[in-house]
Design goal:
two-stranded antiparallel ribbon
């Protein structure tokens, strides 16, 4: 009985330590800054590493100091053999990913750079190791409480509000005082580069939207609706094309979760009505405050220019109001539709995908890019596509193809992309220094190889599969899953940075913690 009490006390202490860690990363990391944007990457990198290392020291230190018998019990209970036996498929995948990163580092011609990642954006073996350690610590010792997610959302709303004020050129944090004029529009809030900012806001929007669409308590519905609306304003005013990938996957796949009942369909229409209302409001802001705002220069400009936008907004809200009025008056309970509407939505998605593929073919192979006007900027894939992403992706693939077989399997070394492509891009027509592929998966392919990339993707896919098969369908689990999906999709055109990526790994650990309770 005494042993059981001490075991419980220990687990409670561990859960408290991890709970504090979750707050420090989820709330602290997005907000911590030191010297404006000039050292924002390294400050957040050190902050994350220090928090994670201290957390690990506390866990190990407490286990060692509780006494010899308890220590022996601890290591017997959490032995390597038992640990591996209790690992899920996702756990094995992330362990293989870490192992490949380790092999890639020790076999790299640039061992020091591979370990520290100092020739890139610091995602070397050192940081990857702490990502994996934090994932296992959070997933095993964190005690699930939904309010942690709301704390993360609250911190995110501050980041979003700062970003919105930057769109109005207010610079209330005075971060842009000493910046070069041409760089001012591409840095915002407490995150930095607008691409990184929209990656973070994309996670927040996904979480808030799913929780609004699924919650039943009025207080929670109002709070998550507010977060969703602020998030919509922030992600569009971030003026980054990365945003449409996050929003596209959110709007595209959310019905597969919601369209099982009439309530879910109603909430989805509210989400759509709110989103297009936000776009309409931004259009009015751009017209009446033209001199006081940055302006929209992204894919959202196409929607803003749509002359029927006001009618679309009114139609959507009209449907929502009439539907809710009929439901309230007749006191209808939410009807369960099974898979009917989800299958219909899948059919619609397939038609849209086929249409997009045809348009891409028409632009790039048939040579009819002129048909699509300003949209051809996004549809025609050449070296200039995606602010020169087309160029660096082509260079990356050429460099990868020239690597020996061993390096194709395990990579050139974590975060050595800049070294790999340095000579090939030395005299590039854009006069830029490329230290990242601006595509997280292509970056991984070259740095940790085919084996590392497959292990990482298997980890993410298995996590999503586990969430989809979770019996209780906890809305917070699904919200975190959508946050992971939105981050993973925008990663096709973005960087892996210790500014937002730690939050991504945190969500993976938090979600897995709840999944393991089943």
């Amino acid at each position: 009985m005494m042993t059981s009490c001490k075991k419980t006390e220990k687990l409670n202490f561990l859960s408290i330590v991890i709970g504090i860690y979750v707050i420090l990363i989820g709330l602290g990391l997005p907000l911590v800054v030191k010297n404006q944007y000039f050292d924002i990457l390294i400050v957040k990198y050190y902050y994350y590493c220090i928090c994670t290392i201290l957390m690990a020291i506390l866990l190990v230190g407490y286990s060692v100091t509780v006494g010899a018998k308890q220590t022996a019990l601890f290591f017997r209970e959490f032995s390597l053999k038992k640990f591996l036996r209790n690992c899920t498929v996702a756990d094995y995948a992330v362990l293989i990913y870490l192992m490949v990163a380790f092999i890639s580092t020790i076999t790299s011609d640039y061992l020091y750079e591979s370990f520290w990642g100092n020739e890139g954006r610091y995602t070397g073996l050192f940081l990857i190791t702490w990502y994996v350690i934090s994932y296992f610590c959070v997933s095993r010792f964190w005690k699930y409480k939904s309010w942690y997610i709301d704390v993360i959302l609250a911190a995110g709303m501050l980041v979003c509000l700062f970003g919105i004020t930057d769109y109005f050129k207010l610079d209330i944090l005075h971060f842009k005082t000493n910046m070069v004029a041409e760089q001012i529009p591409i840095f915002t809030s407490t995150i930095g580069n607008i691409n990184t900012y929209t990656a973070y806001v994309g996670i927040l929007v996904a979480i808030a939207t799913v929780l609004f669409a699924t919650d039943t308590k009025v207080k929670n519905i109002l709070w998550h609706y507010l977060c969703m609306m602020i998030g919509f304003f922030a992600i569009i005013m971030g003026v980054s094309d990365n945003a449409y990938l996050s929003l596209g996957v959110l709007f595209g796949f959310l019905p597969l979760y919601l369209f099982k009942s009439s309530k879910g369909i109603q909430r989805y229409f509210v989400v759509l009505a709110t989103f297009f209302s936000v776009i309409q409001c931004i259009d009015w802001i751009n017209i009446y405050c033209r001199e006081s705002v940055i302006g929209i220069e992204s894919a959202f400009e196409v929607v803003i220019r749509f002359q029927g936008l006001p009618y679309l907004v009114m139609s959507l809200w009209g449907i929502v109001i009439i539907w809710y009025f009929i439901t309230f008056k007749k006191k209808h309970e939410a009807k369960e539709f099974g898979n009917l509407f989800r299958y219909l939505w899948i059919a619609l998605l397939l038609l849209i995908i086929l249409a997009v593929l045809y348009i891409i073919y028409d632009c790039n192979i048939a040579g009819n890019a002129n048909r699509y006007g300003s949209l051809s900027t996004y549809l025609l894939f050449n070296d200039d596509w995606g602010t020169h992403r087309g160029y660096i992706w082509r260079m990356a693939m050429e460099c990868f193809q020239s690597l020996p077989l061993w390096n194709k399997i395990v990579g050139y070394g974590p975060e050595t992309f800049g070294i790999l492509v340095m000579h090939k891009t030395a005299n590039n027509p854009y006069n830029q220094l490329f230290d990242s592929a601006h595509n997280e998966y292509l970056h991984m392919l070259t740095t940790v190889g085919f084996a590392g990339l497959i292990a990482y993707l298997s980890f993410i896919i298995e996590y999503i599969r586990n969430c989809l098969h979770y019996k209780s369908k906890n809305p917070y689990i699904m919200a975190m899953m959508f946050g992971v999906i939105c981050y993973s999709i925008q990663a096709f055109v973005n960087l892996n940075l210790p500014i937002v990526t730690p939050v991504f790994w945190l969500l993976l650990g938090m979600g897995t913690s709840k999944l393991l309770e089943e």
